[in-house]
Amino acid sequence: MTLTPRRILILLPLAYLALFFVYPLLAILGRSLDGSAFGLDPFVRLLGDSYYLGRIWFTTWQAAVSTLLTLAVGLPVAYLFARREFPGKTALKAVSTVPFVMPTIVVATGFVALLGSRGLLNTFLMDIFGLESPPIRVANTLALILAAHAFYNYAIVVRIVSAFWANVDPSAEESAAMLGAGRIRAFLHVTLPILMPAIVSSALLAFAFSFTSFGVILVLGGPEFATLEVSIYELAARLFRLELAAALAIVQMAFTYVFLLVYAWLQRRASVPVGIVPREAVARPARRAGETVLVFALALGVLVLLSPLLSLVERAASVGGGYSLDHFRGLFSNERGSYFYLSPVMIVWNSLRFAGAAMVVSLAVGAVSAYFLSRPRRRGTSAADALFMMPLGVSALIMGFGFLVAFNRGPIDLRGSWVILVAAHSLLAYPFVIRTLLPVLRGLPPALREAAAILGASPVRAFLHVDLPIISRALLVGAAFAFAVSMGEFGASLLLVRPEFATMPVAIFRLLSQPGEANLGQALAMSSLLMAVVALGFAAIERFRYRDVGGF
Amino acid sequence: MTYRIAVAALVLSTLALLAACGSQDEDRELVIMTHDSFDVGEDVIAEFEQANDATVVILKAGDAGLVLNRAILEKGNPSADLLFGIDNTYLGRALDEEIFDPYRPDNLDSVPDHLILDDTNHVTPIDYGYVLLNYDKAFLQEAGMSPPSTLEELTRPEWKGRLVVQNPASSSPGLAFLIATIAYFGEDDDYDYLDFWADLRANGLLVRDGWSDAYWTDFSMYGGDYPLVVSYATSPAAEVFFSETELGEAPTGNVLIDNAAFLQIEGIGVLKGANSRNLARRFIDFALDTRFQEDFPDKMFVYPANSDAKTPEFFRFAEVPAQPARIGPAEIGEKREKWIDAWTDVVLR
Fold first, then answer.
1. For position A279, what pLDDT does the model report?
2. Partners of residue B337 in chain A, C-beta under 8 Å
3. Interface test with A, best of B47, B83, B216 (most A CBs within 10 A)
4. Mean pLDDT to the nearest integer, A324-339
5. What is the per-residue pLDDT across A506-537, written as a single tens digit (0 to 9) for each?
6. More confident call, A364 vs B63
7. Where are chain A's structural domains?
8. What is A5-25+53-314+343-551's CATH superfamily?
9. ipTM
10. Secondary structure in 3-state letters for A259-326
């Protein structure tokens, strides 16, 4: 085997995965299962226990239903952003992805402020109708978990599908309509099959996130709804049964791998070359009254979805019955002279620089991996694809312990280093880059590249002038998600980092760890700041253009 | 191909090694591993650094359970010299795992006997607090109720759907309150702690996984539906301290029932294999000194173990239980798993 530039390139993601994924994972699993001498004992115990079998079943079906719900919410909004122009679209798009990064405890307080028995909505309804008791009751129910998963993950569907949809030539659909197919039939038989790779891509991510769900289950669901991830945490962190936790993590990985494999295979099968046209030719303002109503209703729907977050901003700005910026000002003072105090400027800067670094690493790793996975007719592509997605299917707790065991002494001593943070964040972020790029790369008509080659363009030149302009949009969506994953990641507590590396979610949790109005107020002020930074970050990434297809 | 991956991994790891390996002078750098809730004044740490011509690095490693897990995983070759945050619910486990070297600071005599965790001096007590039920004063007043005077009362209809607790399998106050109920009802009495929990369950008990979820989303003080929550004895004082308006009285109160509050004692120990062992010992002396002991109460909302240390003025809003439940760390260490399993069976499954 000779070292061609192409082979050297694929070494990059492989070395990264070997060092930051496989090595720590093997280190912790080896250590945990040491006592049982790699025997099957812990597995036999787990799979023979009806409780854990129940957890596996629950984890699976709730993830499946959550994914369907996420698609149901996300697809109409994807249509809105891909096919319609309307005033305020850029801003709405930027804020629509904010839920994805918000800490669950913050979202939960938003739910309470809005839907709690003494929340805004209930008080309002009781006032109007003179009711004795609050009409809306949302206790910690299964429905709340499923809804919360949709709330968190719908943006994945919106972003990935709309980025793909926005450049799909609408003429096929129009021809179908002209040939007499109804609008619904044209959509089902023409548009939907074309979009399928992107839909499967986003469904895979939504499924993986719901399957390993932890925060949502703990905060919004309650202990009776434990997923595998929650059980792993309880076994390891509280009961010190590390060998059982590791065994359960392996069971969780096995299941995730099978599901990822099915998705990868589905997506590959669904791929067809797609006619690519500039966005301007695709998205247009609503023409008929019916369309206007639809656009309006969908935009309103997004705002309703965001209302728990908006209620938080309101709560952050209210102090003792009136409005003031006291909570925001409070963030700037270290009243009690704490060793761990960090100014919000520093905290925001931490979040931004770690997210920036994680984004760069994710783009490099994700883009190269996606490029290799997109090559047609290779055996084992689906298997490799699912493998590349595995960081999403591994227990965060086990992975955190793995980092600890692997990087706490020579030869690789990363204790307290920021490298460990960026490595952990990018591990969860690069799968997004792969998933956003794959549908576009597979949809690239090979004729384009061939034409460039025939006209004498070198492979590099063909890539820069043909491939890159077409995939740049998907690349930006991948970058935006990599950024978002890192901004919202709270895994720092599972790693061993220096307090001066605290990011915004870490600061929010710290404030919420003590009682008192001012702590809640400041936590919500910090949350508002997080929302603003994320929305601005998204808007900035969106503005970035590389020879957009719009230049055709 | 595999050969090349190995080469690339080697190159990368060498680079990482060069980037990350600073030389670690013995007794020049002190690394303390602790839980997320640890807090202390920056000037206090600076004083220690100056007096000992050393640098202090504090690494936070998740909640108390995760921190202990980490120390066990790294046994013999620890990331840190000191571990702060082992309490009496985890002490038994920590001693079993032999992660600490013993050390008895000279100023240990300033700590009253009932706070001494461990006769073998592996862990030095630094602070303590009480886990008990808090109640929302405004809510109870509006409902014309007074706080319960026995735990049995909580199983009666007037308290239906009024209590939120934390899951002992995932939360430290949750476990502490479970232990208190075991001390209160006993394990094999006619009506034991499991009977009590079964009755609570039938009476609309809400179980949350963590303190924050329970306090910020379910406690009626913050918009939830439950006027009773498992929290800390200092929480009412913290409510006054962090109030948006000047308060003459705490908005919440402690339910003071004998044997229904858990005395949680937290300590520090030198990890086996520590790099800077002498510095670590000097830090333990320093941590028991009144300078340090008077600094942290308004940051961590716990009481200083040193009986000479004064507590902040606003601590008067925190009523202290006269007779907390006491079960020794050895017994807790031995039965924790069994208790949690039994509780889970009765309350969650």
1. 64
2. 239-241
3. B216
4. 90
5. 899 889 888 999 999 999 999 999 999 999 98
6. A364
7. 5-25+53-314+343-551
8. MetI-like (1.10.3720.10)
9. 0.85
10. HHHHHHHHHHHHCCCCCECCHHHCCEECCCHHHHHHHHHHHHHHHHHHHHHHHHHHHHCEECCEECCH
